[in-house]
Design brief:
By secondary structure, this protein is of the alpha+beta class. It is 30% helix and 33% strand. Strand 1 and strand 2 form a beta hairpin.
């Protein structure tokens, strides 16, 4: 699953990965940003498929590299753990947004 938000210089992206297995499931988030100008420069020098340059992401990072509020991957064995993971993720994204308000918000 992919959520994106455009801004004048590119795009912000959240990738949501939910993998189900018989005994356990995993929930992971990746955060990405596309900076149009950087991508235009890079793709002048790299051999890529013509339509890929319009979809490429400049940087992808896991939330655990930004802060320790959520892990790189949630290990989920029951509905209660899923609810806890979603709640922790909501807090992470809300706090991340609140910390950006007042700074150079790209929207």
């Amino acid at each position: 699953m992919l959520y994106h938000k455009n801004y004048p210089h590119g795009q912000q992206v959240i990738f949501v990965h939910f993998s189900e297995y018989p005994d356990v499931s995993y929930l992971e988030y990746n955060l990405g940003i596309r900076i149009h100008r950087v991508e235009e420069i890079i793709h002048r020098f790299l051999p890529t498929l013509s339509d890929y340059s319009d979809r490429s992401i400049t940087l992808i990072q896991t939330p655990d590299k930004i802060g320790k509020m959520i892990p790189k991957r949630f290990v989920i064995e029951n509905d209660y753990q899923l609810a806890e993971a979603i709640e922790a993720s909501e807090k992470f994204f809300c706090n991340a947004w609140i910390s950006l308000v007042g700074r150079n918000d790209p929207t």
